[in-house]
Amino acid sequence: MQGGYQTLAAGVEATGEFVDRRSRFIAQLKHVSSEVEADAFIAEVRARHHDARHNVPAWVLADGRERCSDDGEPQRTSGMPTLEVLHGAGLADVCCVVTRYFGGTLLGPGGLVRAYTAATQEAVAAAKAEGLLVTMTQVTSVTCVIPYSAYGRVERLISDCGGKVKDSVFAEDVQLNCAFLSGDEQRFVAAMRELAQGEDLCLVGEPTFAEF
């Protein structure tokens, strides 16, 4: 997902509800980072609402994997609409399970699509309103080992290049573990090479998605 994405903060859950002709649709949204975590959350919701007619799951991961199920509802009336709301909101690494308690009246395919869409939208809106969403951007880590005499200068250089010091290890020399928005690290690495008169003091990691 080039450019970044939003996800739910870890350890929290957002919910939204929609009612149509006494059928209740309860959307439960949670952060997941793997298919295993998604499956665990789906099982948790199914146990929580074991008396419900349907528990419709949809999940999407940052690596592009995704899945949804209609869980007994007519084909493409529930799982796909739920997944499309997650896509439309720019969310990834999330799982949404929409629980339906049947109200006694058939809603028809169009009514089901509207209901599952609305419930999921309510959960996403609740996550936004409660400040539970976090933005993940592509970040590159850089580790450099420098003498104590250069510590202050290098710290300012990291800041000037848009980076952040995540951790400092003080031993015989100083090890600075930094993070940059991917691409910004190149200017820092070049400046460090110039500072060290051609010596390469930086170890550059692979880009990953993280809060920055």
Features:
212 residues; alpha+beta; Ribosomal Protein S5, domain 2; Alpha-Beta Plaits; 5-stranded antiparallel sheet; 5 helices; 32% helix; elongated
Notes on the protein architecture:
- The protein is an alpha+beta fold.
- It has two domains: 127 residues, Ribosomal Protein S5, domain 2 (2-Layer Sandwich); 77 residues, Alpha-Beta Plaits (2-Layer Sandwich), CATH 3.30.70.
- The chain is built from five helices and eleven strands, in the order E-E-E-H-E-E-H-E-H-E-H-E-E-H-E-E.
- The mean pLDDT is 93.
Can you give me a brief rundown of this structure?
By secondary structure, this protein is an alpha+beta fold. It has 5 helices and 11 strands; from the N terminus they run βββαββαβαβαββαββ.
Rg over C-alpha atoms, rounded to the nearest angstrom: 23 Å
**Strand percentage, roughly?**
25-35%
User: What level of helicity do the residues show?
Assistant: 25-40%
CATH architect. name of the largest domain:
2-Layer Sandwich
Q: What is the terminal separation in angstroms?
A: 16 Å
Structural class: alpha+beta
The CATH homology group name of the largest domain: Impact, N-terminal domain
Instruction: Report the order of strands and helices.
Output: EEEHEEHEHEHEEHEE
Number of domains: 2
Number of strands: 11
**What is the CATH domain class of the largest domain?**
Alpha Beta
Uncertain regions spanning at least 5 consecutive residues: none
Number of helices: 5
| Mean pLDDT value | 93
Q: Mind describing the biggest β-sheet?
A: 6 strands, antiparallel
CATH topology grouping of the largest domain: Ribosomal Protein S5, domain 2
